[in-house]
TrEMBL record:
Pathway connected to this protein: Carbohydrate acid metabolism; 2-dehydro-3-deoxy-D-gluconate degradation; D-glyceraldehyde 3-phosphate and pyruvate from 2-dehydro-3-deoxy-D-gluconate: step 2/2
InterPro entries assigned to the protein according to its UniProt record, in alphabetical order: Aldlse_KDPG_KHG, Aldolase_TIM, Glyas_Bleomycin-R_OHBP_Dase, KDPG/KHG_AS_1, KDPG/KHG_AS_2
Stated name of the protein: 2-dehydro-3-deoxy-phosphogluconate aldolase
Subunit-level organization: Homotrimer.
GO molecular function list: 2-dehydro-3-deoxy-phosphogluconate aldolase activity
Catalytic activity: 2-dehydro-3-deoxy-6-phospho-D-gluconate = D-glyceraldehyde 3-phosphate + pyruvate
Family assignment from sequence similarity: Belongs to the KHG/KDPG aldolase family.
PROSITE patterns: ALDOLASE_KDPG_KHG_1 (PS00159), ALDOLASE_KDPG_KHG_2 (PS00160)
Gene transcribed to yield this protein: eda
Top-level taxon of origin: Bacteria
Keywords: Carbohydrate metabolism, Lyase, Schiff base
Length: 320
């Protein structure tokens, strides 16, 4: 369960899918994976659920596929045989939870009250679904609900949109957000998987919130760094500020006192979640200078450099 939790948390989003036609499942799985969301919760709201799970796993074996709206142990058994790696129930269903725990199947029960969460803790669970998120009080309610339970992670689902997803993901107790907005039914029915792939990319970029932090210039020594920073201050009014290794001109230009990584210098890119961004890029095949990683006091990633350079510049991610 902890391994599954880490995987879901590294992705950050769980598309909730209700497929009427299992023949579209494989193409949908590829569109989501190529868009940066190799995860899906296929619900038992239609008869095509089990076959859809089977086809999604066949098309994308590495994809994390689970079953949703699981209200009976028989459904969990069917879904698991089809390749589902986790089960999600709308409420805290003891029968489903006990069956899954007894058969070593990951289960994420729905919880909307302290009583529900405490039941999950008794079973040794570390991830629950906060449902229906918006109707149950949204971010404010989740903050209150999660407060006493520091060891529990939540997956808010129900009313989650691209517009409010960021508010939930800002909470440390939130492992990921579940939502149907990532896979509009009308696009699935039309077979427009190109648009779905692009929507997935957009949702990932919205979640990670990439933006330029600063550009670092490799100077030979402190005097050159001071001169470069001074010119930016003189021309643009970017005030100089010196630290041990560099001199900043405003917040966008960093003149290094001695050559650092990168032939020409480095570029820092801010992100809402450096850990998730690292996982996202690794899934895309990028490699990192692990020795450059800087961690915060709470153990979360603060910054790390890509191994590849772009245009002679080293590039690193930095936590906002």
């Amino acid at each position: 369960m902890n391994e599954l939790l880490c995987e879901i948390e590294s992705i950050g989003m769980v598309p909730v899918i209700s497929l009427k036609d299992a023949e579209k499942a494989g193409a949908l799985a590829k569109a989501l994976s190529e868009g940066g969301i190799p995860c899906a919760e296929v619900t038992f709201r239609t008869d095509a659920c089990v076959e859809s799970i089977r086809r999604m796993k066949k098309a994308c074996p590495e994809m994390l596929v689970g079953a949703g709206t699981v209200t009976m142990k028989e459904q969990a058994e069917e879904a698991a045989k089809a390749g589902a790696k986790f089960m999600v129930s709308p409420g805290f269903n003891h029968e489903v939870v006990e069956y899954c725990m007894g058969h070593n199947i990951a289960v994420i029960p729905g919880c909307s009250s302290p009583t529900d969460v405490e039941q999950a803790m008794k079973y040794g669970l570390h991830l629950v679904k906060f449902f229906p998120a918006e109707a149950a009080g949204g971010v404010r309610m989740l903050k209150s609900l999660s407060g006493p339970y520091s060891g529990m992670k939540f997956m808010p689902t129900g009313g989650i949109t691209e517009a409010n997803m960021g508010e939930y993901l800002e909470l440390k107790q939130v492992a990921a957000c579940g939502g149907s907005f990532m896979v509009p039914e009308n696009l699935v029915e039309k077979g427009d998987f190109i648009t779905i792939r692009e929507m997935a990319k957009k949702a990932v970029h919205e979640m990670l919130g990439f933006e330029l932090a600063h550009i670092g210039l490799n100077m030979k020594n402190r005097d050159e760094a001071m001169l470069a920073a001074g010119m930016f201050e003189s021309v643009f009014g970017f005030q100089k500020s010196e630290n041990d290794n560099s001199i900043f001109a405003g917040s966008y230009i960093e003149a290094m006192k001695s050559p650092f990584l990168g032939e020409k210098g480095h570029i820092a890119v801010r992100t809402n979640d450096a850990g998730r961004a690292l996982s996202y890029f690794k899934r895309r095949g990028f490699s990192f200078r692990e020795e450059s990683a800087v961690y915060k006091m709470d153990g979360t990633l603060g910054a790390v450099y890509f191994r590849e350079e772009i245009g002679g510049f080293a590039v690193h991610l930095v936590q906002k």
